[in-house]
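[[Local backbone shapes]]
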Amino acid sequence: MTGSALELQNQALSTSLAILARKLGVIVAAVQRMRSGAVPTDHTLLRRANHICQQLPAVDSPAFDSTFRRDLADAVTASFLGAVTKTSSALGEVGELYSLLFNEKARSRDMDGGGTPGDMF
């Protein structure tokens, strides 16, 4: 079963964020070990870690939370509406097939010249 494009994009984003979190966890652990004196301080590594941190956006703010929640709600609503539209289309096709089937049976019954109006089968 294939997912929608939105589901595939969300899965890819989720995987990317999990990888990023894991890599940042390694950096944080290394810095904490340097601070505690468990390993010698490596200034080159600290400069590289600082450079990486400077590239990451600071997103711990109420404005971000509000925007993120609104965008998430919009995405969920769009996904829901897409599912409703797809289901509605499928039900329309089922209705058309049902009509064709019973109109075909009624025509064949009328051509045979027999049966009562309520006698479909």
About this structure: The chain has two domains: 1-56, 61-121. The mean pLDDT is 83. Residues 73 and 95 are 32 Å apart (CA to CA). DSSP finds three helices and no strands in the chain.
